[in-house]
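ARCHIVE CARD
Drawer: 12
Card no.: 0347
Subject: one protein chain, sequence and derived structure
Cross-reference: see card 0346
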Amino acid sequence: MVKRYVDDPFLILPDDHVDDTLATFNDYHPKLQFTCEREANGRLHFLDLLLVRDQSGRVTTDWYRTPSASDRCLDFRSAHAYSMKLACANELMGRASRLSSLEYREANKVRVGDMLRANGYPKSLIRRLMAELSSSTVGPRTVQDDGSRPNDVVVAEVTPRIFMGLTFSWEISPKLKVLLEKDLSNVSVVFKYTNKINRLDTRLRATDPLKSPKNANISEVLYEMGKAVFRDIRMGAR
């Protein structure tokens, strides 16, 4: 079996074929070399998914965190929109739940709760979000295994959503989002921030005077150190 996510392949092979397969991959180009993570003690992690195989051969999955993970996420005390903080918490909880088999979900809820509390999220909010996650259920399948739809399934017409990007302002943005989404049901308001690294970072190198508009026609010139003088020397021109 072969699965791939971007440039990370996942393969299930016989033990005696692993080395040959890795050598085949690495023989393609000397500058394109792969490493191999092997199953150890019935466990193998792939990205943030941990596969666990018991003695009967049954495979379960768990949410995987590297030992060096800092458990940092969007801090609740930051000046970001409240909706972004909710989205961060919901995504963490949902991801830990989606990637985990039933026997690991309760333990992962505790891990996510500890992570959110360490980043300033109130306990009452964490309890409410966890309760909402536990009460949510997956709807019935609308597509059969052969790709066809059951005859009794009615496909509702979905209105496409429109995303509106606005610059975030702490004083008015949360209220403006509520008003716009209340009156415009198919509009989702998302916020963007102007204080990005490329705006705050300074230019460490001086601007090249040759690239200024007034010197656009100058080519192949020499700059005399210590003097702001340009000599119009066209190499090979007579």
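Annotation on reverse: Residues 82-98 form the longest helix (17 residues). Residues 41 and 187 are 50 Å apart (CA to CA).
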